[in-house]
Amino acid sequence: MLKLMHKTALVGAMILTAGAALAEYPERPIEVIVGYSAGGGTDVMARTAAPFIERYLGEDASIVVKNMPGASGQIGVTEVANADPDGYTLGTFNLPGMMARTIDREADYDRDSFTYLANVVNDPNVIVTSTGSGLDTLDKLIAEATENPFAVTVGMSSLGGDDHFALIKLQNATETEFTIVPFKGSAPARTALLGGHVAMGILNISEVAEFQDQLNVLGVATQERSPFAPDLPTFQEQGLDLVNGSMRGFVAPAGLPEDIQAKLMDAFSQLSSDQEFLDAMAATANPVEVVTGEEFKQLTSDLYDLAEGVWETTPWN
Amino acid sequence: MYADLLNALPNVFAWTNFAAVIIGVIAGIVVGAMPGLSATMAISVLVPFTFGLEPLVALGLMAGIYNGAMYGGAIPAVLLRIPGTPAAVATTFDGYPMAQKGEGGFALQVAVVSSALGGIASAFALMLLAPPLSRVTLLFGPSEVFWVAVFGLASIIFLLGGNPIKGLISACFGVFVSVIGSDPIYGNDRFTFGQLEMLDGINIVILLVGLYALPPVIDLLETPLKTDGVNSSKLGTESIWKALPRMKGFGMTWLRGSFIGIWIGILPGAGGSMAAFMSYNEARRTSKTPETWGEGEPEGVAAAEVANNADTASALIPALTLGIPGTAVAAVMLGGLLVHGLQPGPMLFRDNPDIVFGFMWQFLFGAILLVLLGGSLATNSFARLLNLPRPLLGSVIIVLMLIGVYSIHGRMFDVYLMLGFGAIGWVMDRLKFPLPPVVLGLILGGFAEENLRLALRIGRGDPMVLFQNTTSLILVALTIAVIVGPTLKKRFVDGRKKA
């Protein structure tokens, strides 16, 4: 009897809370888990977006950014995948990194572990060469790589990241071979380029915007020119089909209730038209390109297939 | 550019901005003095909060903490032989013997004056020479950086004195610890036993606290009834004005230590601990009385402390101009800058001169404030600790260690690791294995490995790539000198004795 009463009370309480959630999500602070330390690119994106999302969700909404750095973001994203899908735990999501980690390591999540809310940043790849290399056009670079396979050294931030995939695409498209030099992060790679220790680099446009005078920037891997460097031609303009970049967005655990998902999606989609948000992102050198819901999921799937294809032919560890 | 420097000055004196530096220095001294809490951690905890602050308030706090902590680490190093931060390891060599002789107060005054001078020299280097010095950083590609790390390791093994074989074994242990975690190139797991917590390698603070703080605590608790040789009545603190004349012979050591600190600061990665060792070694090598070093030579404290503060501001030179931080602390500060939309690079100085140059002034004032805030008041308050009964003091330190290590990532795993290193440290201490090479082995080992492998990739497997330019060759020559120098000198001296 007591047990039954207990059960009834529990069910009643669940119905009540569910009803409350339906009525006025969010009723307590929403936690956004960032898999990197405070002050990094992903963290800055999350903290810049947070007050805007709060505003779109309604007066009482509050977002708490929580850093869980470690294992190239894997610790944080695993936490999100395993969290309750109640809309109170969200997380940041990096592409292609988060998908690559499911291929090159044992991961406790996969592409179906998430509800895809919105990708917010798309930082396209650029190819740069050191001024001392003499390779100041794309044609010269490709000619050199064709004539002397492996002679061109390429500095980049890591294997299995967006820079690496961009290089694989370049190699496949031009039937060339380069020598990969994976630094720990893009700043050391860029410094090695400035010092002439490597000939070429694959970086992201936000990382070279400040250094355009000291490096040869050969092109950008986008469909249309980037507002960050309007004078910089795309690779497609130069006859090379190369579109690639590093993406950062927000996900929730899979199985989010539909109404909460709709509310969140609505909030995130407002980001792209908010000039104040766009200005704040421009100030931190984050090129914004908002892609929501199904499209974001498709994007993730495509990148997973790309990463898997690369892994099968040229595994990076 | 120098006009920008002066234009930025008035804003630094806005009271909120100046108060931030003062609070930062005080907080830094406290954090540095607690074993297990480091400037890196304090600043990374601070970064998320700075979102809502004015840039110069946030940066002033950081500059203050950095300067304060580099000195604060000396306090437990002198009083308890427990370095509060990795950079204070060399301070224990002479600081602790001084305290045992009842000169602890003077040792701390030497430390605070030296720290302030090092910080001031470094701030001037940052203010006046940042662009030319950043070009020096560019000379150091992977092969050069590899040789810097090898040189650092060779110095610590062969110049520290004592038994070089034991030093080598200690350093190898440190290098082994640096290998744990994911492979720097391919990302494969190494010695992690499937633990996600170990993928990023072993944090230096965990090793430092375990190795250095646990053995002294065990000693404290082993003989709970023995009254301590050091207590504040015997600390021999005197007014800083009386202490200053006793430091008048340190000029050369300060100058040399500042140069070494600034130099190491602009090279990526090595940081304050290597600077302090180098400065200490050089000062001892050129001393007229090298035999008194290690037994309470005040100049040894001066050499170590001037250098570990001289790398603070200079570590920001590559951070601000190239985005590559010279030390772990500079790395988290870079995050603090990014939060305010300050992107490192050549444009930074042009786009935000008020903030960048204001930040540099804050470094300078932070260093000057050290003398006032870190002087007798701070020293005396910490020295009171030593009046505590030994079991109580030991327990307090253990609690601080546990809190400090737990708070790095907020997980118990690190605490168990630290206790494991503590057990190893205790055994090593009993067997008279030197501990400093372990610390430097961990710091420089990973660095040497990563850069060696990058260099070999650039050379497509040809080891000659390591000897291809002048900078590398100079570093190779220095390394050889460090290894064979002491033996040759000994032969030479012995030869003369016979003759």
TrEMBL record, chain A:
<dbReference type="Pfam" id="PF03401">
    <property type="entry name" value="TctC"/>
</dbReference>
<dbReference type="InterPro" id="IPR005064">
    <property type="entry name" value="BUG"/>
</dbReference>
<keyword id="KW-0675">Receptor</keyword>
<protein>
    <submittedName>
        <fullName>Tripartite-type tricarboxylate transporter, receptor component TctC</fullName>
    </submittedName>
</protein>
<feature type="signal peptide">
    <location>
        <begin position="1"/>
        <end position="23"/>
    </location>
</feature>
<dbReference type="InterPro" id="IPR042100">
    <property type="entry name" value="Bug_dom1"/>
</dbReference>
<keyword id="KW-0732">Signal</keyword>
<comment type="similarity">
    <text>Belongs to the UPF0065 (bug) family.</text>
</comment>
UniProtKB/TrEMBL annotation, chain B:
<feature type="transmembrane region" description="Helical">
    <location>
        <begin position="106"/>
        <end position="129"/>
    </location>
</feature>
<feature type="transmembrane region" description="Helical">
    <location>
        <begin position="391"/>
        <end position="409"/>
    </location>
</feature>
<feature type="transmembrane region" description="Helical">
    <location>
        <begin position="315"/>
        <end position="339"/>
    </location>
</feature>
<feature type="transmembrane region" description="Helical">
    <location>
        <begin position="167"/>
        <end position="186"/>
    </location>
</feature>
<dbReference type="InterPro" id="IPR002823">
    <property type="entry name" value="DUF112_TM"/>
</dbReference>
<feature type="domain" description="DUF112">
    <location>
        <begin position="19"/>
        <end position="440"/>
    </location>
</feature>
<keyword id="KW-1133">Transmembrane helix</keyword>
<feature type="transmembrane region" description="Helical">
    <location>
        <begin position="466"/>
        <end position="488"/>
    </location>
</feature>
<feature type="transmembrane region" description="Helical">
    <location>
        <begin position="45"/>
        <end position="66"/>
    </location>
</feature>
<keyword id="KW-0472">Membrane</keyword>
<feature type="transmembrane region" description="Helical">
    <location>
        <begin position="136"/>
        <end position="161"/>
    </location>
</feature>
<dbReference type="Pfam" id="PF01970">
    <property type="entry name" value="TctA"/>
</dbReference>
<keyword id="KW-0812">Transmembrane</keyword>
<feature type="transmembrane region" description="Helical">
    <location>
        <begin position="12"/>
        <end position="33"/>
    </location>
</feature>
<feature type="transmembrane region" description="Helical">
    <location>
        <begin position="359"/>
        <end position="379"/>
    </location>
</feature>
<protein>
    <submittedName>
        <fullName>Tricarboxylic transport membrane protein</fullName>
    </submittedName>
</protein>
<feature type="transmembrane region" description="Helical">
    <location>
        <begin position="254"/>
        <end position="278"/>
    </location>
</feature>
